[in-house]
Amino acid sequence: MTTIQGKNFIGYSLSALATKTFRSYVPAQDNYLEETFHPATPDEVEQTMALAEKAFDTYASLPASQRADFLVAITEEIMALGDALLERAHLETGLPMPRLQGERGRTVNQLLQFADLIREGSWVEARIDTALPDRAPAPKPDLRKMLIPIGPIVVFGSSNFPFAYSVAGVDTGPALAAGNPVIVKAHPAHPGVSDLTAQAIVKAAQRTGMPEGVFSMLYDDGHEVGTALVQHPATKAVGFTGSMKGGMALYKMAMERDEPIPVFAEMGSVNPVVILPKALESRTESLAKTLAGSVTLGAGQFCTNPGLVFTVQSPALAQFEASFQQEIAGVASATMLTAGICQNYRSLRDEAVAHEGVKILHRSEAEANHSNQAEATLARVDAKTFIDNPTLQEEVFGPFSLLVVCEDTEELYTALALLKGQLTTSLMADAEEAAQYPQLLRLLTRRAGRFIMNGVPTGVEVCAAMHHGGPFPSTTDSRFTSVGRDAILRFVRPQSFQDWDNSLLPAELQNENPRGIWRLVNNDWTQAHV
Amino acid sequence: MTTIQGKNFIGYSLSALATKTFRSYVPAQDNYLEETFHPATPDEVEQTMALAEKAFDTYASLPASQRADFLVAITEEIMALGDALLERAHLETGLPMPRLQGERGRTVNQLLQFADLIREGSWVEARIDTALPDRAPAPKPDLRKMLIPIGPIVVFGSSNFPFAYSVAGVDTGPALAAGNPVIVKAHPAHPGVSDLTAQAIVKAAQRTGMPEGVFSMLYDDGHEVGTALVQHPATKAVGFTGSMKGGMALYKMAMERDEPIPVFAEMGSVNPVVILPKALESRTESLAKTLAGSVTLGAGQFCTNPGLVFTVQSPALAQFEASFQQEIAGVASATMLTAGICQNYRSLRDEAVAHEGVKILHRSEAEANHSNQAEATLARVDAKTFIDNPTLQEEVFGPFSLLVVCEDTEELYTALALLKGQLTTSLMADAEEAAQYPQLLRLLTRRAGRFIMNGVPTGVEVCAAMHHGGPFPSTTDSRFTSVGRDAILRFVRPQSFQDWDNSLLPAELQNENPRGIWRLVNNDWTQAHV
């Protein structure tokens, strides 16, 4: 069985210069595990970045097939850790084993999708415009363009996905796939899982002959290491999933550098769900059940948790409210990720329900003998109060949802128009009913990155058509997704080659199209050679 | 003949609330034209943004063919202004008539390319992943994604391209093509040209039935109006071409908003050219002639002007220096765009040549009886001095170039490694010689958005494979180009539609593929229906 090291992974070495250490907290038991973890020192940050910088040229120049082999090897090494990895995650996060097993599967699947993507190769968006030497008044040069990697990427592991958005998750996979070295700042809420995963990545890198520095991982239970990494001149982009406060701090830090760099921070969302009257009437029970399941899934610890449900006064509403609260009540309480997250949940929820006009429909009890359990809570408010109190649209991270009842469609539009940018919006209505509300469709479309019909926002499919991102403040950059193949676009930039000799061009741009990729040649899409 | 109005174009109305006015300066004559222009007041800014916000929903929902008709109509109305437009531009900018005629052609061509692009439609990058209702453990939903417009775009006209980077230029065209309203802040150095162009756009918008507010243009000879536009909550992105100081001021302003927005600022570049020894020997005269032409083209007032030329000590160097200075001396002096630009050129050039170790090889004289003429200047410095004085790599906007002579290849690499981000780098070498310098190719590739072989950086082809952009500080966002079809990607974001009814989807994502566009369907590129 693989032993947790507790030291910083600097290239292929372990390093623990700090005398200060921290330990893993077990939220379900309110105690600590034995291993100690060493926060990185400023010297260790410097060493790490120097190695990453050095690795970049070599790594970026490798054939895509070798980078793909590396990604596949990571998945093999992760699976080789076996149940020990899941059990450690269960201790450190309080998440149930089946969920963790599923999340590990998703993580491996994500990495394999990126391996496939770069093996196939068309993702580089090659464009070729051939020369017209005889054009008047000036000859047209030969121009060819493709996406290239940008350099070392700093990744902040998230608390709520110890695998899929952490050390080998949605940022690391595409950053490595594109040809960039990655430096992970491990999340202090699950350092043991991070340690085991880092070992898997390092093994995979060594086994597939990657240059040292292609991957490093540093510990810190404070903010010093993260700050130093974001401010380091060698860092070219940052991936982050977490709180608004954390995301905005990194974003501002990155903008204030001598050379500003992009920060892809996914920060939070209340994922409004709108139920139209006919849908409410015809599907009262099933909607209540589906929504209650989505609100309480994973103790509500998802960025896609439906925190606001809008509906209009109608005869079916009373029955829906009764069923919704009954369904919420039927879900067992669950452990939250950390003591801080649990306290924060309770205090934000209590602030929300303390507003005059907000009524608690149901509040679950935590089980005895379990620490850090979230009490699922459903509340109701009239739209007028919601409109007058902008803080009611702020995220309460946990199993909480607020039912906003509007007098009529006009009030619904007024309330929705006030919403800030979201990861998702959802509409419960059949096509015929929805078609009668064109303004509503526009309102919901413009406010989110993903618009769902007759479904809940939890569950983020890993595929090409997924956009997991949205207008500010749900993310810092609505143009990019963190999930699906297009996540790779965060860590590249285009480069044009003008009149280059064919022999010196990257394979993707050579006349012969040796990689057989799709290219836009003289404005036509083709896999043919030039 | 169309009369210059001098009032702000707020939707389909003219407005001149300010009592303060300014006039057009004629740089070649050092005097002012008669018409007066009214800076916009804060009220006028508010009216403008309210109209743009209102127009957005309608305009974004129009079929692409109608937006394309609008773009084509703009080109027709611009051409209908006839020579009066060119003559006014000649007065206001000092640029020669043939250049202005060419630039007008490029501007029209750019707009027509975007009309073609949106008529064809594949630019929306449609991705479709069809549902797998029977997938275990959870069914796969149907997901479809495409690029959508984002809202009102603020465009700052540039001083050095009165047509191609101004009112109807590289920002306005793609922003309108994508479905966004545009608000132009006219450059005060050519308000008359801006006025005539705005009239053409307004006529085209009315003729093709566009919603009022799809285009507005405001005047200001100070910074108040630009600041108010960038800070306005309805503004969703900013396009700017100009100085580092101006670009960074707008960038910081946009980052400090409650909702940060992207600023695409193209700010400057010295476009290093490297000449390898064999090329210098075999093409001594032609290189000197080509480079001298590029340095002095348009009085050096191009962001792609080659401000640094690197070479290594070799027997052919003395002859090259002699020829280079002779060729520069053979070019007639030319009027600069404004008195400020001319003064700035002289002072930055004088600062550069004042460094100990910098030697002037040639300095032209301004012609008698011509104001604001730039004296083309060629200087030389040894690489050691260049390496020790980072200010020597700062842009001198105008006909100036600095020849940096390196002792050997190692010193060349050291000097190049210090370079900041550039729009372009160029290499003068045949393929055989270039292949012997892999590290040099990497150094030049990583530092610029466009890498040119055996050509000069001036001349920016408008085509799909062009990347006119580059790492900071040449632009604020190296991921986007301002020239070519991909310029449209600056003004859109992706949106996913999950399990939407086919009848409610945008045409681009419907099963039948009514627009016949290329789509990535279940990870395969196809024009077929689903």
UniProtKB/TrEMBL annotation, chains A, B:
<dbReference type="InterPro" id="IPR044151">
    <property type="entry name" value="ALDH_KGSADH"/>
</dbReference>
<dbReference type="InterPro" id="IPR016161">
    <property type="entry name" value="Ald_DH/histidinol_DH"/>
</dbReference>
<dbReference type="InterPro" id="IPR016162">
    <property type="entry name" value="Ald_DH_N"/>
</dbReference>
<dbReference type="InterPro" id="IPR016163">
    <property type="entry name" value="Ald_DH_C"/>
</dbReference>
<protein>
    <submittedName>
        <fullName>NADP-dependent aldehyde dehydrogenase</fullName>
        <ecNumber>1.2.1.4</ecNumber>
    </submittedName>
</protein>
<dbReference type="InterPro" id="IPR050740">
    <property type="entry name" value="Aldehyde_DH_Superfamily"/>
</dbReference>
<feature type="domain" description="Aldehyde dehydrogenase">
    <location>
        <begin position="20"/>
        <end position="470"/>
    </location>
</feature>
<keyword id="KW-0560">Oxidoreductase</keyword>
<dbReference type="InterPro" id="IPR015590">
    <property type="entry name" value="Aldehyde_DH_dom"/>
</dbReference>
<dbReference type="GO" id="GO:0033721">
    <property type="term" value="F:aldehyde dehydrogenase (NADP+) activity"/>
</dbReference>
<dbReference type="Pfam" id="PF00171">
    <property type="entry name" value="Aldedh"/>
</dbReference>
